[in-house]
Each structure stands twice: as C-alpha cells, then as structure tokens.
Amino acid sequence: MLDHIDLADPRFFSTPEHLRVFRYLRDHDPVHWNPDGTEPGFWSVTTYEDCLAVQKDGATFSSAGTNTLGQQRWTGDEGAGRMLTHTDGARHTELRQVVNRAFTPRAIAKLEPYLRSIVRQALEEALEHGECDFVDTVALLPVASIAALLGVPQQDWTLLLRLTTAAFGSADQDVQTSPSARASAARAHAQLLLYCQDLMQQRRRRPADDLVTRLVEAQDSGLLGEEDAMLFFDLLLLGGNETTRHGAVGALLAFMEAPEQWRLLRGDRSLLPAAVAEVLRYVSPSRHVLRRAERDVELRGRLIRAGQDVAVWHSSANRDGRVFQDPDTFDITRAHNPHLALGSGPHYCLGAALAGMELQLFLDELCDLVGSATLLEPPARLASTVINGFKGMRVRLLPA
Ligand code: HEM
C-alpha cells in the first residue's frame, strides 16, 4: 500500500487517494517513517491522539528549527529561534504576549461590521457578474482583517493584497520551482518588509492603537530587534491570509457537494458556529505542522532520534474515526467536534477567534445573498503539502 507513497510530494495531495492512505496509516502504521524522497526522511504522526500529544509536548518536540516540511528544513529557516512560530518555552511566551491582546474575541469584535461589508460587497459583485473565480472573490477578506489589526491604512489594502499574493502565493510547490516566480516572490517580499519598516517609523512618531505600534514598543523595550519586528509583521500577514481564504473557498465547495447541509444552514443560522467548526475540520486548510525531536523518544514502539523531524498531520487527525463519527461526511450538526485544524498546545493558532469570526460572517452573508452556487469546472487545487487550497474555483452564483 505504501510503496511509492511520499508524503512530502505535493502531487500526493492532488487526488482524494491521500485520504485513503492516511486512513491506512492511522490503522496500520501510525508513527510512520517517510524515507528520503522529495525531502530528507522524516516521521509522520496521523492519529488524533498522537497529533495532540506531539503538539502539546513542546519540550520534547521543538518548533525552534522550522514548522513545516519544505526546503527550509535543509537550507535553514530565517525565522529559526526568532519568530513566534519558531520558538519554544519562555521566549515563545514572551513573543506571544507582544500581540496577544489584539486577538482576543473582544478586541476583534469591533472589526465585524466592516469585515461584513467587505464580504457583502465581494459577493454582490460576483452575483452581478454571475460567474466568478471564488478564490479571487474572497481574497480581500483575510488581508483586510489582518491589515486593520496591524494598522495598515485602508488605501493600502489592495497593495498589500497584491504583495502578499505575490510573496506568499507560492504555497503551490509547482510554482515555487520556477525561477521567475521565485524572483517575483522575493521582490514582493522585500517590498512588504520595506512597507513595514516605513509604517513602523510613522508609528514611532505617532503611536496608535494597533499591532505595528505594539511591535515598535517591543523594540523600544528591548524585546525585539528591528528585523524581528519585520518578521513578525510578515508572519501575521502570512498566518492570517491563505489559511482563511482557502477555508472560505473549501467551505463553499463542501456546501456545493452537500446541498442538504446548505439548506439546513440557510434555514437555521444558530448552526453557524457549528458549521464553522465543521468547515475547519472537514477542509483542514493547514495540512500539517512540523516538530523536531529534542531527545530520543519512543512513540508507539518506534524510536524517534534526537534531531529527527516529525510531521503532525492534523488534516489526518481530523478524519480519525476514533474521535469523529462518519469522519468523511460533512455534517454541520455534528455534536462532538474537537478538531485540530487550528493546531493545539502552546502554538495554538493566535488568530483562532479572528478566523472563526471571518468564516462565520462569510457563511452568514453567503446564506443571505446567494441562493445557489454551481461549479463550472473541477476546481484547480494547489500542489502543496502545507495548505489545502485552490489555484482557482470557477462558479456560477445565483441570488437568493
Ligand atoms: C482558517 C484559518 C486558519 C487556520 C486553519 C490556521 C491554522 C493554524 C495552525 C494549524 C497553527 C499552528 C502552527 C504550529 O503549531 O506550528 C496556527 C498558528 C498561528 N496562526 Fe493560524 N490559522 C488560521 C487563521 C489565522 C489568522 C486569521 C491569523 C491572524 C494573524 C493566524 C495567525 C497565526 C499565528 C501568528 C500562529 C502562530 C502561533 C504561535 O506560534 O504561537 N492564523 N494557525
């Protein structure tokens, strides 16, 4: 069954076959050694219980080197030991405290009315045209959300959308290998960092109630160097962008494939929070995170050596039948849904409440405005081990 299977090969995820392989791994080889292939060898954990255990044990399974599969594993990750996602223990806590307050449900609630207006406008435009690429339709929502928290002025949001798409839209590993795409990504990335530097200078002169001001204060108190602050800006844009965008696209696809669920939600909006949780579980926009063993450790009888990498496939955990009834069914009335789509343990998604709010108001507006949605062609999926997403999804939308 596992001959020729390489979990680090983005092409592995281009068909639903990967779901069958993960089921096999959960049942027969839950701590699996993926030999050298696309990438140097690494371990994979696939059951709910093991994914949770590894993510919670930051002392044994470190984030400090890197936190996903990919080239940075062997060429070195510029964020290693510096970025929030790439630190452990006390330093991680210290960094998280710099930005924590901006992400509480109370802090983000004030963004709701204007985020709702962005979704409404995007859907109305799509309805006017009748047909659209839904990946573009929802693109502004996540960027606008995080841009507002950062304190990026509204007139620059479309610029930021363009730069983030060029800089980070490289989640497709087919695209990443093209030298011209790499060069334009590097250029866009450099522009983003300069943009951040400029905004920090403005906030130093005139502080405001936003995240960029927090980053300036953290530099003044000696917590962050200037480059660290810029990396932080980068991380917040990256973390909040593609995941949420593809979550929204995946949500529409799931509802198109299960129209009875769509009818249920339109008939009873009290199901919205459960629908968001089910979208996160079923779509799992983030496929895995990576940890590095700090010491030799035994897991289910397999010896993981110090220094070896462990991929935590929470996308597989979210389909584990030991925890979720009928795991491959999209069911917004699911009573028990402790999904791991937003991670768990110390690195649990900082933007969890924001992502939840974005997806909830997106679904709410979709219910209000859209009567039916039809796929015009099979969606083009991103070739990525990291993001479960789409290059494009052409749909026809009809008004409610
Ligand atoms: C559907 C949307 C989202 C998904 C599926 C998602 C998923 C995740 C996952 C799985 C992690 C754990 C990473 C790890 O353990 O190494 C994480 C962490 C993180 N997420 Fe999200 N995320 C989403 C939305 C957001 C948003 C809107 C933001 C806003 C900025 C955000 C910012 C972050 C940050 C900064 C971290 C690192 C936290 C830490 O290392 O302490 N995410 N996210």
UniProtKB/TrEMBL annotation:
<dbReference type="InterPro" id="IPR002397">
    <property type="entry name" value="Cyt_P450_B"/>
</dbReference>
<dbReference type="InterPro" id="IPR036396">
    <property type="entry name" value="Cyt_P450_sf"/>
</dbReference>
<dbReference type="Pfam" id="PF00067">
    <property type="entry name" value="p450"/>
</dbReference>
<dbReference type="InterPro" id="IPR001128">
    <property type="entry name" value="Cyt_P450"/>
</dbReference>
<protein>
    <submittedName>
        <fullName>Cytochrome P450</fullName>
    </submittedName>
</protein>
<comment type="similarity">
    <text>Belongs to the cytochrome P450 family.</text>
</comment>
